[in-house]
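I am still getting used to backbone structure tokens and would like to learn alongside you. Label the sequence line and the structure token line clearly, so we can match residues to local backbone shapes. Go ahead whenever you are ready, and we will take it from there:
>
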Amino acid sequence: MDFERLVRQILSVHEHLALRATKAVNLSLTLRNWLIGCHIQEYELRGEDRSKCGERLFEVLANRLTGYGLPNCSRRQLYRYVDFYRLYPQIVRTLSPQFRRLLPATSSGEKVGTLSPQSATPAIPRDELVNCLSYSHFELLAAIEDPLKRAFYEIEAVRGTWSVRELKRQIASLYYERSGLSRNKKKLAGMVDAKVEHAKPALSIRDPYVFEFLGLNASEVMSESRLEHSLLDKLKTFLLELGRGFCFEARQRRILIGDEHFFVDLVFYHRILKCHVLVELKSAGFTHEYLGQLNTYLSWYRAHEMSAGDSPPVGILLCTEKNHALVKYALAGMNSRLFVSRYQLELPEEGEMRAFIEAQLKEEIPGRRRSKDGT
């Protein structure tokens, strides 16, 4: 053994066990959600007091579970777990004895699933699906109503080791429909394979379901870079120390828009302006996409987080690279002159923010040069 071989062996050990750990977490999360769906289905069929909640079962159950702090147990999510169980009943055959003990019991005392579930023969064995795909894959697949189309994406996702993002991209690109219309399906498949994003442990652990299941904070997982992570820490302190009414609420606040999760870097409530202040930090030059993203968050907050007497939320977008610090304020359609004047008075000035960002960049990146125009 030489030194280079030693390095390669250590890397191999790390990669192997990291992949194994990721698969174990994904398998546990998948089975957790499948078992939740199984228990709800069994209660709907045989629950002694099921008439107590009636049609409000999912709403009442979601409130109760959320009150206990269980992650991802909203009313909508519980419906998805039941759909997942109904679409993939043969997952029961993949359960080890330790998981079988978690199955609900029937009135006869037998565990649900001891008899073979009635289901169409799967294109891929269920144990292979469960071991190769994460719950987020299954959630995308379960949303596909056509069984043949769903089977097509199951096969392709497993064969191509697609990441969740890749599966979503291929469904949106109508890959199934394009494949059906294509005369040369192998050529089309080759073109797709050449561009796909493969599932990796680093990508899997960034799945919002995974880190909530593990009890991790969003900021521990979702930070895009060490630079942004450090700057956000200092930016939070800086804004609070201004003493102009900033009250800290959250970092990497997760919001659900449709079926997608998004994260707001910093969220404050301003007690003087009586509005939320959303801060987004980008370690790149300003683009209109960043402003569009921030405006989307503002619109969501305006629709879901404003209380009686609140003013519309305000957004601050900070862009830090290419030797400049650019600050943009998104007024989000505020027309009141009084509010705008108070807004200009209470929030930090652009020059103040620019100076802060520049100072922090010098500290984080020693020897960073200033451009000729002084930025």
Observations:
- Residues 114-121, 369-375 have pLDDT under 50 and may be disordered.
